[in-house]
Every structure is written in C-alpha cells, then in structure tokens.
Amino acid sequence: MSVKAREILKKQRLGEILKSLDFIDDKKLEEILKQQKTSNMKLGEVLTSMGIVDKEVVLSLVGKQLGHPYVRLSDSGGIPEDVLKYIPKSIAQQHMLIPFDMEGDKLKVAMAEPQEEEVRAAISILTNLEVEVYITSEEEIIRAIKENYE
User: H-helix or E-strand containing 99?
Assistant: First the structure.
C-alpha cells in the first residue's frame, strides 16, 4: 500500500472506509452507530455482530489505519521457543499480546490493541530489541498463549 493510501486511511473513520468500499451505505452506518452507542461496543464489534463484515476484515482495515499489518497467528504453525522467551506469559496475558517471530534484532509482536505505544516502548526496553507491532484478535492471542506457553 502506498504512503498516500495509508495517509488517506488514517484520516478516515472505519465507517467511512466501509462506505467507500460499498460494504455499507449512509442509512446502515447510522444504524450501526446507533447500536454502538447503546451497546458500548467498539465499531468493529458491532459490524461483526451484525454480520456486515467479518472480524479479519475489520482488523485488517484498522491495522492499515494504524500502520500495523494484520497477522493471523493460527497460520504460523507455532511460535519458536527462543522468540517466546522475550516476553513472559504474565505480561503477554496482561497486555493481550504475544511475540511470534524474530528478524535480526527486530521482535515481531501481535497485539489486540496496537495503538498502546507505551506497551510497545516497554517491551522494547525490556527486550533491548526493536519491536515491530502487528494487529490480531484477542481470541487469536489467547489461543496462541495457551498453545505456546503451556
């Protein structure tokens, strides 16, 4: 994706992006926003609960907005132990994240809330590595923690 396209995505709200991609129209967006207010759910959760788009589409779009790629941890085939050692299970559970790969001195970390810059900075200090953040679902992280730390 070009830098210009990424900048456009960052400036648009998720609902507007979905409208421009013809997933929804103005009337549907109004209905979604109304349900979001009454349910106190995130917009992406409302969209998936209403069956408008699946969670992976939402995460991919949000990731593009935030500048973090989407990763499906279940496709990785397991996380190497030498990667897991950088972040203790308790921290992974507390912050809903998991390291999943390493490239040179760059630790790849999947997070449910990748916009938490202070967590990213703390991991970088803790590991003495550059941290590359990816977005994924809480369910993927919980499953990956259970499968890889236990």
Answer: strand 97-103
